[in-house]
Each structure stands twice: as C-alpha cells, then as structure tokens.
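User: Hi! I'm working on a homework problem where we have to compare a predicted structure to a textbook description. Could you give me the structure for the chain below?
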Amino acid sequence: MTRFLTSVSAIALTALPAFGQEAMDLDAITVFAGLEETTTLQTGVSVDVITEEDLEETGEVRVVDFLARQPGVTLRATGPVGAVTGLSLRGISQNNVAVRVDGIDVSDPSGTQVAFDFGSLLTSDISRIEILRGAQSAIYGSEALGGAINITTKRAARDGVSFDTLFEVGSFNTRRASVSALARGAGYETSVTLSYLATDGFSAGDTDAPDLGTVAPNDTNGEADGFEARRLSFSGRYDIGAATLEVSAFTETSEFDYDESSAGNVYDGTPDDVTERDQRGLRAALSFTTGAVDHTLAASAFVSDRVLSGTSVDTFSGVADGAYIGTPYPFEFQYTGRRTELSYQAGFDLNAGTRAVLGLQRTVERYEDDIAGASSFGPYGSAQEHETDVNSVFGELTYAPSGDIDLSLALRHDDHSEYGGYTTGRLSAVWRVQPDLILRANAATGYRAPSNYELFAAFAGNPDLEPETSKSFDLGIEKRWGEDAYLRATAFYIEAEDIIDYSFTTFAYTQRSGTATRKGLELAGGLTLGQGVRLDGSYTLTESDADVTLDSSSWTTTVPRHTLALSLSADLGQRAGVTVTGLYEADREGGLVDYGLINTTFTYDLTDEAQAYLRLENLLDEDYQTVPGYGQSGRAAYFGVRASF
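Assistant: Happy to help. Predicted structure tokens:
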C-alpha cells in the first residue's frame, strides 16, 4: 500500500505543467473538516466546496447530477428524478458516507442499512456543499467510513430583505418552482425556502432489459415513473446577548413511482407501485463563550416515514413455456425511522499554536415497520420496533508548529447499546511549502455500525453483528498559478474489514472475514483560456479488489475504473453565457457498458435581477445505465427563469 501511494504521488508531481511560478494568495475557504470551522489552507483532509453559483451555472435539478462530476464520485440512480439514488465516494457506497443538511443527520434509520437517498435532493434550496473524502468517523461517528457530505441550505447574501425565485418547465412534463425569502441585519439572519417539483418522468425499467414473458414483457417498460415533491426549509442565526442561537428545520413530502425487479431483472409488471415519503428535521445550537472556553450545545431530531404500496406478482405459481405464471396481490409496507441527538463541545486554546476541542454526544435511533400483503399462500403481515443508542466522547487537537504547517489529531469513542464500544481516529497534516504549493496527508480509521434492521429483523437479523471497519490513507499536492490555473492530485487507499453481508445461504445477515480495498488517483485542474472562458476538469482512477466472498453487500458494487469530467464556460457578450459539461465513465463491470454524457446550459440576463436559461441534457441522446436494468433519461430540454430582488 505504501509503495502504491508513493508511486502515484510521484506520477502526480511530474505531471504538473510548467506555467509561470508567480505567487498568489490562495482563497482561504471556510469548511467543517473538523470539530470546528477551519479553512481549506489549514486542513490535511481532501475537501471540495461547491457553491450556489456553481450549481446555478449548470442548472441541474438533482444535486447528485452535479456531484457525479466531482473527483471520486460515482452516481447510482434507479431511474428518473425521485427514484432511489445513491453515490459512491472513492468506490465506497452511500451506506458508508455520512450526510448532514444544516447539521442534521439525514441518513434514514428506517432502511435495511442506514443511508441517505439522494433521489429527491434538489438544488432549489442549497447554497453550499462540502465533500470530505477519506474516513471521517472520528468526527461524525458511524456511516462515515468512506467520507462525509455537508450540505447548507440558502443563506442571505446581503443585508435587508430579499427574495429569490425560480420557475422551470421541460421534458417529461416537468414543472419546478421555488421561492426564498431572506433577511439579514445586525445580529440576525433568516432564510425560508418553499420549493415544488412535479414530473411525469420516464420508465425506470430499461427497455433493453431481458424479457420475463407474460409477467414482464419488455413492452411493459413504457409506463412512466412520475415524481412529485414539496419542501419547506428554514434557517436562522440570532445573537442573544453574548450567545448565538442557530436554528434549522425542514419538512419534505414526496411521492414517486418505482419499477419492480425479479432475479436481477427490472420491469413494470404492475403500474401502481408507489412510494410515499415524509421527512422532517430540526436542529438548534447555542454557542457562547465563558472566559477562554467556547461552548456549543446542540439538539437535533430527524424523522422519516415511508409507505410502499402497490401490487406484487406471485411468481411461485409455476413456469410455462419459459414465462412466469403469476397472480397479482396487493401490498402495503410502512417504515418509520427516528433519530435524536444531543451534544456538547468545548474549544479552548492551550497556547498560541495549539487548540483543543472536547465533546460528548448521545444518539438514539429507532426503527419501526408494519408490513401487510398477500400471496398464493394467503395473507401475511408483521410489525416490529427496535431501538439502539450510542453515547460518544470525542476530541480534536490542532497544532501549528510553524506558520506553514498545521497538524490535527481527532479521536472518538462510541459506546453502542448492542455491541459495545468502538474507537476511531484521524491524523491530518498540511504543509504550505510555498504560497502557491500545498502538500496534504491524511490517515484515519472508520466504521459503520450495524443497522437496527440488520441486528433485529424478524427473519434476517443477527444480534451478534459487530461494526464494519476501515482504515484509509491519502496523499495530495495542490499547485496554483495566480488566479488563472491550478492542478490538484490525490492518491488514496481504503481497506475495509468485518463486512456485514446478507447471506443467500442462511437468509440472514452475517459478518464476513477478509478485506475489500479501493485505491486510486484523483486529478483536478482548471485553466482560464481567455477573457470570460474557463475550462475545468477531473479524472479519477479507481481500483477495486476483495479477498472476501460476498453475496449482497454494497462492497460488491463496482465503480468505473476510469472517470473523466470536463466543464467549459464562456461569456457570449455582456449578457449571455454558455456552459458545456461532459462526463465519461469507462471500464465498468457488472454488465454496464462505457458511456459519455454532454449537457449544455445557455443563460441570458434579462435584467440585472432576472436571468433566463435553457438546459439541454444528454445532448447526444446516449442510452446508458448507472445501475444494471435501470435506464436513464434520453435527450431532454428545460427552460427556466430565475430572479433575485
């Protein structure tokens, strides 16, 4: 592993182009790469920051479509907007990626694995996204084995009262609208966003999928899978004397159609299968200082209610002439997940170059289901409720031995009510060799706790499960040439053990011995080609390997060996502009062929406050999949107007 990192880093160093060696003042962007805010100049963690302006430039509806062009990120969507969608970060699935929205843990405790579904996460109310790569369990606890994604909703960008509005129509009878009311003044800031999206969608089941005969012939895949969602989000920051109160909340209701699958084949066997989902989150944090100590008290809650209903086709009736003979039966599955968190942390300086942060946290997760249906064997049903809690103690020590070096050591111990304690750590270093040359290194351990379903499910649970564990390493170098060009290279290595797997032999969850590894190289760079013309791009090499036999674990999910993403933006006069993005994924396993996408967005400033845009997606009408059997959108067009006043 060390030889691999050293070799790749050497390649990256020799690949740096010979642009002029002028010094520059690197942008010190503030990020949450540790327990307290820091800057991109002072952390050894590999982190990318996406702004509201970045999202508006390309105009995508789903956040995950923008994320798919970031280094190390791979999209896995089971159909159109709204369909269940995940991502891989450095080849590690969303089961092992922590996701926070305004500090609220939004991973769903009601799932078989605790993970966040990116399918309905839209760009309408988002102002900022941070992508932290490598194990972050020392900061975030479980589900951060592969990294973390921090999302911030709309914030007021100017003093006084202002409004942001958007309206869009397009292919698949898509309608999207949002309005934000924002206010900022002395000692306060408030933002409220209401957004809506409805689309008829397209069939998630790919028409090229194998024919299942009378139950699921290919021509049944023409049934479109629609989606409708409403979301209300709120954030506020208020100075209360010597303290600051931060409050954030959201509520989202959605309904989307989905396609069934059987023996790995996807089809529209019955057109009435629907998921209704209701998600709510709330967080409040109070920050204040006493003497030399900065205190933060926080409490948060998250609730997810899902109802899956429709008609299943009983395939146990037999097979005739190569086709399944089935009888339709109705079903309704209800799932509820709840999470509450309480935390306290204190930060204080030990001396001029050393700072410590210590904290405590308690998390309670609850899983509930109520399943009812019927088959040729008669009616069936079950209901269960399970709860676990985790008590945590954590700390971070940052040390600056000189003006150009910053070191960070983070430790966390989580005590789980079912399996006991587990400790993780992270050591990061950054060396600003020159004002325009930075070296980074990061070593960390991570883990994923077994979900309540994996532990206690009536027929598949295993109460003896221990956490999945990992260790990760990365080395990076970043070079800049004024404000016109930059190049960043990062070599990474992740090794996971104690993998939790659902066994097709015992029909229960089990712990596998052996390891799964991900290693590779991330390259990112940008160059100003002329007045108003900018080219940015990234390339990711990911090698996946395992010496463990797995039946169904997410560690069996393959990612492209090669991923290339490009973005070209240009001004077309004083009021117009164009952005062209490209994504190419090659050397994919699991029956997925290579594919390339080109999207284009044209913008025109109607006034200083209003802008019209035309977005063309999949310009070449590429036929492709990101999950076997699930098709993606063909060529599509969307027109919209957005304004701020």
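For your comparison, note the following. The mean pLDDT is 89. DSSP finds five helices and 38 strands in the chain. Good luck with the assignment!
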